[in-house]
Write a structure and sequence with these properties.
heterodimer; A: about 325 residues; alpha/beta; eight-stranded mixed beta sheet; four-stranded antiparallel beta sheet; about 25% strand; B: about 350 residues; 9 helices; globular
């Protein structure tokens, strides 16, 4: 059933399986996430942790037939997107849910001009004449700070840099004023001064009450942008918390390891703390807690039993048997 | 194999280097313009020193590195390494010098030949330079791998069997096997996950300490450079706009471009204040703006900035090693502390 009206997106118990040469692999397991209206929720984790697959599932854009949702519900504005008929889903995507990816080039048509693509988006979802749509397109290119917007209207994607294309994608996302923006590593390929412009645009969307699911591996971006954060590791959510709590008192050893490995702009520590070992890939996930082979605090129970996400108070939860002891203990000794 | 390092002169000295690429058009490939990727850069690195080179894509930092190791041909300028004039040295001298000057690239997926085993990859340079006999290959490979924390059981495997972090270790082993004095690291950790990145940075610091290595460390990530470098040079559109000790350049940046970079870099735990967001994009290196190349995007630019090209000069209130190419360097308010 749909939840209270303040919740825009409610992912419940999502599991996704991919058919591969090595058999069927579960790459996302029992993931639950909640986005309130106008909130920015970060989904952070290293490559292969399942964060992008989670986002693609919301949009029902998993590569078929290899990838499929095997369990769960995705509630958005009162309907379960996993059970929405395709033609209705097409209206939801674009109009109510917008998306931005790391590679804007792949999301735009190479054959059509920027202006035509923006105008087309407008005309698809709003009844407007060609001229009106073109004016609207120009207005939004200006809003996102694209240099020489009049000329760019008639440019094709290959004539623009990655940073300019990402601004075009955001113009396309912003013009329909969606309830939800899914941004998958939107600034990863961009330089920091251009990243700052893109993050600024996303803040403007938030101010207009758009909820944002921001997927990134960059903890600096998470810190700057997010209200709450979900940390994923090896296909599972290992911690969810309000952003300040996550950075000040991480309740999962993996989160703690990630934060210790973060570099600051201040005087460097002589040695960085690293997380030993490698990020495991699907199909080679260890039993019990999937982080246990790399965890300095693992004990017998971690090797056999899967730790459930347990509430540690103040909206923070972690999938660790020691979560209770970790909370509120950022700089302290291990429990 | 071990040659003494001349202490009175820098290990690497680059003088007024220009690397331009012609823009070719038409059937006769006529040059219709020049991309001025590196446009008058001078810098030096002392033995055992790590110089960080930062800047955004297209600023010329990779072209500079590739020119120093001989992968690009400079249009003008001088490069001295270990007392040798690299652009005028004989082929033989060059080959010897190359041993002591190694490079590590960003993408450990494309920089290793997929058809060679790890043993072949790691010892390829040693054999090519005649530094070991073929019979000694295995022992040399084992030693090289041990240095980067990989086991001997990697020897007969191929690059695709390794993760990104392990591949970067193989690249490092391959470079270190030749006992270099200077290693140019071009975005060595940009393709790696956070947890693995820390491992590789620690390894690079350990190797530097053990062997007295010098690094030219290129990165777009200020925090990585802050962690790795003693000195920092900031590039914009083919030129160095600021240079000095890492701590002063990044904590109290003098050039408006460096200020913007520091301000725009998202760093955890830093107050989420208003960021200095630069308008527009980096202009094309084929037609750099007149005067100061940064002036069209600079919030502090005056009319003079569009006419006079500023030279790298000392800031009045800073130590002599901190130089800034900005006409207004002595009148701008110090940037707020981080």
């Amino acid at each position: 059933m749909p939840t209270s009206s303040d919740i825009i997106l409610d992912i419940r118990g999502l599991s996704v399986r991919f058919d591969t040469d090595d058999g069927a692999l579960t790459v996302v397991e029992n993931v639950s996430l909640c986005l309130p209206r106008g909130a920015v929720v970060g989904l952070v984790g290293e490559s292969g942790c399942g964060k992008s697959v989670t986002a693609l599932s919301v949009l029902r854009l998993l590569p078929a037939p290899a990838g499929r949702v095997t369990a769960g519900e995705i509630w958005f504005e009162g309907e379960d997107l996993l059970r929405t008929p395709p033609d209705r889903l097409r209206r939801v995507r674009g109009q109510r849910i917008a998306m931005v990816f790391q590679e804007p080039m792949t999301a735009l048509s190479p054959l059509h001009t920027i202006g035509d693509q923006l105008a087309e988006t407008w005309r698809l979802h709003r009844s407007a004449s060609r001229a009106e749509a073109r004016t609207e397109a120009l207005k939004w290119l200006r809003r996102v700070g694209l240099p020489d917007p009049e000329e760019r209207l008639d440019a094709r994607p290959h004539q623009l840099s990655g940073g300019m294309l990402q601004r075009v994608m955001l113009a396309m996302a912003m013009m329909l004023h969606p309830a939800l923006l899914i941004a998958d590593e939107p600034t990863t390929a961009l330089d920091v001064t251009i990243q700052a412009q893109i993050l600024d645009l996303m803040r403007q969307m938030k101010e207009r009450d758009t909820a944002i699911l921001l997927i990134t591996h960059d903890l600096g971006v998470i810190w700057e942008m997010c209200d709450t954060v979900a940390v994923m590791y090896a296909g599972r959510v290992v911690e969810t918390a309000p952003v300040n709590a996550l950075f000040q008192a991480p309740a999962h050893p993996y989160t703690r390891g990630l934060l210790d490995a973060v570099l600051s702009l201040g005087a460097p520590a002589r040695r960085l703390k690293d997380i030993p070992g490698q990020v495991p890939t699907a199909g080679q996930y260890p039993p019990g807690c999937r982080f246990h082979p790399r965890c300095p605090f693992a004990f017998d129970r971690c090797r056999v039993e899967k730790p459930p996400l347990q509430d540690v108070g103040n909206g923070q939860a972690a999938a660790c048997f020691l979560a209770g002891q970790w909370a509120g203990n950022r700089s302290g000794d291990p429990p | 194999m071990i040659s003494s390092i001349n202490l009175s002169k820098p290990l690497l000295q680059v003088e007024a280097l220009r690397t331009w690429f012609p823009i070719l058009r038409g059937v006769f490939a006529r040059a219709v313009g020049q991309i001025r990727a590196v446009d008058g850069v001078s810098l030096h690195i002392n033995a055992g020193e790590a110089l960080g080179l930062v800047g955004e894509s297209g600023c010329g930092k990779s072209t500079l590195a590739r020119t120093v190791v001989g992968l690009e041909h400079p249009t003008d300028g001088r490069i001295y390494f270990d007392g040798l004039d690299l652009l005028r040295a004989s082929r033989q001298t060059m080959t010897r010098a190359r041993c002591r000057l190694q490079m590590i690239f960003q993408d450990p997926y494309s920089s290793l030949n997929p058809r060679l085993t790890v043993m072949e990859l790691v010892t390829e340079g040693l054999l090519a330079h005649g530094l070991i006999e073929p019979a000694a290959r295995r022992d040399a490979a084992v030693a090289a791998l041990r240095e980067v924390g990989l086991d001997a059981d990697a020897l007969s495997r191929y690059p695709h069997e390794f993760s990104g972090g392990q591949r970067q270790r193989i690249c490092i082993a391959r470079a270190m096997a030749l006992r270099p004095a200077l290693v140019i690291c071009d975005e060595p950790v940009s393709a790696l996950d956070v947890s693995v990145r820390a491992q590789v940075l620690n390894l690079l610091n350990d190797l530097r300490e053990q062997h007295g290595l010098a690094y030219l460390f290129i990165s777009h990530d200020l925090a990585v450079v802050r962690h790795m470098a003693d000195r920092v040079a900031v590039m914009y559109l083919g030129r160095i706009v600021e240079e000095g000790p890492a701590a002063t350049v990044l904590d109290q940046p003098g050039h408006p471009y460096t200020r913007a970079l520091v301000s725009a870099t998202p760093v955890p735990y830093r107050p989420r204040q208003n960021r200095l967001v630069l308008p527009g994009d980096v202009p094309s290196a084929s037609r750099p703006p007149p005067g100061c190349r940064f002036h069209p995007r600079c919030p502090f630019a005056t009319l003079a900035c569009a006419e006079i090209e500023p030279a790298l000069e000392r800031m009045a209130t800073r130590i002599s090693g901190h130089r800034v190419a900005c006409l207004r360097r002595n009148e701008l308010e110090p940037s707020p502390p981080l």
